């Protein structure tokens, strides 16, 4: 049901948000004192869906602005943004040249606003193996290439000394839809395996060499939990606390096997250098430096047209300013990493360009 903001509610909402965002002045009315829209619509990344739901609820409670976000996969979110079926898309994969060209022809320039960072993890179903199984990047690549076919393969046994691995076939679960989670996963595998890079590459929907397919993170989690011996990859929130899903540590660049966690994701984020982030704020976080860094970390962006109807521009500015400042506190609650301050500052400048 559409809500209509009273002037009193609107003003109170603006005061609440402006007071929480460090007084940067971006949460007031839009250009010319335009009243913000009372609803904005987003779609896309299932990776960020749990956090977006948290953000939407908290912001609605403070301001009455409705943020309607639907988890559909990153590629769908981008496509709907290009076709102006939503106000913003959520994606864990940068827009490619074809998407950017199509968007420019439709409505002009697109801006990328980084929102948060989170880990993508290998999940597997081996109920009889209690100790978490270690993985290296090359081993994961060889499993998903179909080269390592058994759980007791010598390569796996070598990095899991003292663990009795079963003589059991490995079944692989992958995404069926265009996915930012897949982009993060294949981006990492392309960095650590020349063979993966040459044969499969880095894509939202690659030509998978093997694997049973399911849509979205929860679909892959369902495939893994439903069949003993299966391995897949999901965003951390879709793995923790799930029956029959175990998470394996992954060896990082320093040679350390690191379990995905808030702390190891933050350690990866701390490796970011301002000079390494381009003007469009599109960058990769996989295979980060640092002894405690988890190596498979993805970034989530909101993508939207720089040119918006005045009421939408005002509402988008208010919401994403809040996300970049107060909203970051909610990231840690769901084990996403808050953005470094230098990235918040640069992202805020992008938000301010909405016109």
Mean pLDDT: 90
**What global shape is seen?**
elongated
The ordered string of helix (H) and strand (E) elements is: HEHEHEHEHHEHHEHEEEEHEHHH
Most strands sheet: 9 strands, mixed
CATH superfamily of the largest domain: Periplasmic binding protein-like II
The gyration radius over C-alpha positions equals: 21 Å
Condensed summary:
This protein has about 350 residues and is of the alpha/beta class. Helices cover about 35% and strands about 15% of the residues.
Structure, described:
There is one protein chain. With 355 residues, the chain is of the alpha/beta class. It is 37% helix and 17% strand. It is built from 13 helices and 11 strands. α2 links the parallel β1 and β2. α3 packs parallel to α4, α5 crosses α7 and α11 runs antiparallel to α13. The longest helix has 15 residues. The N terminus is likely disordered.
Topology record:
Blueprint: H1 7-20, E1 39-44, H2 49-63, E2 66-71, H3 74-82, E3 88-91, H4 97-107, E4 110-124, H5 137-145, H6 154-158, E5 171-175, H7 180-192, H8 194-199, E6 212-214, H9 216-226, E7 230-235, E8 246-247, E9 250-251, E10 257-258, H10 262-269, E11 297-305, H11 310-324, H12 328-333, H13 341-351
Parallel strand pairs: 1-2, 1-3, 5-6, 5-7
Antiparallel strand pairs: 3-11, 4-7, 4-8, 4-11, 9-10
Helix pairs in contact: 3-4, 5-7, 11-13
């Amino acid at each position: 049901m559409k809500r209509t903001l009273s002037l009193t509610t609107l003003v109170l909402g603006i005061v609440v948000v402006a007071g929480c965002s460090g007084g940067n002045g971006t949460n007031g009315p839009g250009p010319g004192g335009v009243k913000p829209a009372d609803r904005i619509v987003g779609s896309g990344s299932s990776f960020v869906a749990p956090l977006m739901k948290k953000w939407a609820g908290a912001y609605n409670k403070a301001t009455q602005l409705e943020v309607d976000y639907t988890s559909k996969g990153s590629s769908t979110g981008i496509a709907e943004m290009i076709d102006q079926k939503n106000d913003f898309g959520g994606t864990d994969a940068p827009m490619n040249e074809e998407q950017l060209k199509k968007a420019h022809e439709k409505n002009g320039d697109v801006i990328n606003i980084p929102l948060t960072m989170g880990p993508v993890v290998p999940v597997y179903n081996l109920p009889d193996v209690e100790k978490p199984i270690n993985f290296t990047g090359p081993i994961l690549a060889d499993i998903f290439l179909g080269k390592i076919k058994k759980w007791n393969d010598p390569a796996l046994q070598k990095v899991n000394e003292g663990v009795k691995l079963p003589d059991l076939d490995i079944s692989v679960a992958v995404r069926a839809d265009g996915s930012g989670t897949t982009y993060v996963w294949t981006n990492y595998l392309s960095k650590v395996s020349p063979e993966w890079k040459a044969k499969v590459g880095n894509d939202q929907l690659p030509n998978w060499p093997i694997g049973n397919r399911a849509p979205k993170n929860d679909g892959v989690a369902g495939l893994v939990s439903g069949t003993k011996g299966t391995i897949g990859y999901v965003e951390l929130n879709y793995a923790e606390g799930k029956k029959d899903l175990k998470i394996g540590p992954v060896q990082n660049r320093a040679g350390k096997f690191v379990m995905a966690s808030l702390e190891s994701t933050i350690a990866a984020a701390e490796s970011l250098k301002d000079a390494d982030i381009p003007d469009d704020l599109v960058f990769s976080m996989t295979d980060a430096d640092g002894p405690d860094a988890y190596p498979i970390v993805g970034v989530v962006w909101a993508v939207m047209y720089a040119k918006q109807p005045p009421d939408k521009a005002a509402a988008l500015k208010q919401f994403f300013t809040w996300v970049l400042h107060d909203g970051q506190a909610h990231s840690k609650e769901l084990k996403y990493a808050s953005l470094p301050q230098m990235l918040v500052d640069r992202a805020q400048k992008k938000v301010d360009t909405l016109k």
